[in-house]
Amino acid sequence: MPSFKETYEAIKEDWNKGEKNFNIECEMLSEGMQVKCTMGAKPFEILIDAPLGLDGTNEGPSPLLVILASIGACIVAVTKFWAKIMDIKITELKVFSRGHINLGAIFGLDDSKLAGYDKLEPVVRIKADAPKEKIEELMEKVFSHCPVITNLGGASPITPKLQIRE
After folding, report:
1. Phi, psi angle pair for 73, to nearest 5°
2. Cis peptide before 43, with omega less than 30 degrees from 0?
3. Is 3.40.50.720 the CATH classification of the domain at 62-161?
4. What is the pTM (predicted TM-score) of this model?
5. Which partner for 113 in 42, 83, 105, 165 could form a disulfide, CB atoms 3.0-4.6 Å apart?
6. CA 29, CA 39: separation in Å to the nearest integer?
7. pLDDT digit string (tens) for 71-108?
């Protein structure tokens, strides 16, 4: 398996070496709102659910919590990538992902309201061996190159397709 530096250099030399497709299967389970999500070559499995008050079993995070986790985890990963590129040593990094939603919009109680987060506010706490200006530059790179922020910001169209089984 190549190192980060080898991967970075290979893509820098040939853009096409960065092309990847990712696929995940999400399968409804019989308990509550449980969904088994299978992904990757290993494969990894994540159980996603809902709280008890939303007909779930509370055995896993809700899809909404997974969105917040994805934002935070992506910021951490992209910060580590950019810290390597910019030769910055990070000694502490935490992301507190916050989101606001009104569940009534999901239930169709007011179709004028957004059926999702109306506010997403990740807060990044970082300590590194660089001056404040260099850390700010690092984080500007992270925020403008984080794929989860990019995708949730509407840059990628989501085009659902329906397959009805008989």
Report:
1. -65, -40
2. yes
3. no
4. 0.92
5. 105
6. 16
7. 999 999 999 999 999 999 999 999 999 999 999 999 99
